[in-house]
Amino acid sequence: STATLKLMDFNIEYGGETIDFAKIVEAVKLADPDVVALEEASGNTEKLAEALGWPYASVRSQLISKLPLIDPPSADGRYAYVEVRPGEVIAISNVHLPSDPYGPTELIAGATVDDILALEAATRMPAIQERLDVLPDLVAQGIPTFLTGDFNAPSHLDWTDEAIGQRPHVTAAIAWPVSTAIAAAGFRDTYRELNPDPVADPGLTWWAGRPLVDGYPDPSEP
After folding, report:
1. By C-alpha distance, which of 95, 32, 89 is closest to 63?
2. pTM higher than 0.85, yes or no?
3. Are 91 and 146 in contact (CB under 8 A)?
């Protein structure tokens, strides 16, 4: 029989304290997930779990959960298990890839597509590869596996021929290496599964829909 799990990924930005931490708590309550993968928890993983009254938190994986979390020693922090029913687990690998230099910003500054591919190979690909080295083995064991995170890289599913010009920095169809490698490993982009048209539904997540703090982030950022 199937189990239903509601998984949320949430970059709370600098520990969720640049605006109002209570709003972070409220947002999670409104979404009503079973598990939240946090980005930029900045030491507040357990604080958020406690504020929600949730019993489980993994500081190493930046996960909070209503369901038991298991941090297997063999995972070495690359993934954790969520026990959805007694003796039955799913795996979550939560990542935060290097943010700088950021590919679209470099494009605006005059970088070529070859420059961009080299940049991704040098910065973000080594970080994601350590996850892709182990996660397919979990899938092969029949464990449903989720890859969440702040990838700090666009997707090849978004930067298509049809999307060129949709935003000023989208000047070419680019096979962004991180998303390409993730797809090649067998993962499916949940947003693109539900919203297959990147022109109709670009799915922009940055910059964040929140007030500026001391002029940050610059609304002109790609």
Report:
1. 95
2. yes
3. yes
CA dist., res. 137 & res. 135, Å (int) = 5
- Type and span of the H or E element at 80: strand 80-85
Q: What contacts 77, CB < 8 A, 6 or more positions away?
A: 60, 61, 71
Q: Are the C-beta atoms of 107 and 173 separated by less than 8 Å?
A: no
**Closest to 13 (Cα-Cα) out of 212, 204, 176:** 212
* Exposed e or buried b per residue across 101-117, where buried means at least 16 C-beta atoms within 10 angstroms of its C-beta: ebbbebbeeebeeeebb
Asked if 158 contacts 114 with a C-beta cutoff of 8 angstroms, the reply is no
Cβ atoms within 10 A of the Cβ of 95, count? 22
| Strand pairing category for 35-39 and 7-11 | parallel
In this prediction, residue 134 has a pLDDT band, given cuts at 50, 70 and 90, of: very high
CA distance 62 to 40: 8
The two tokens of residue 69 are 């979390």
Tokens of 210: 């929140």
Q: To 10 degrees, the CA torsion angle through 198, 190, 130, 58?
A: 130
Quick one: tokens of 154?
């666009």
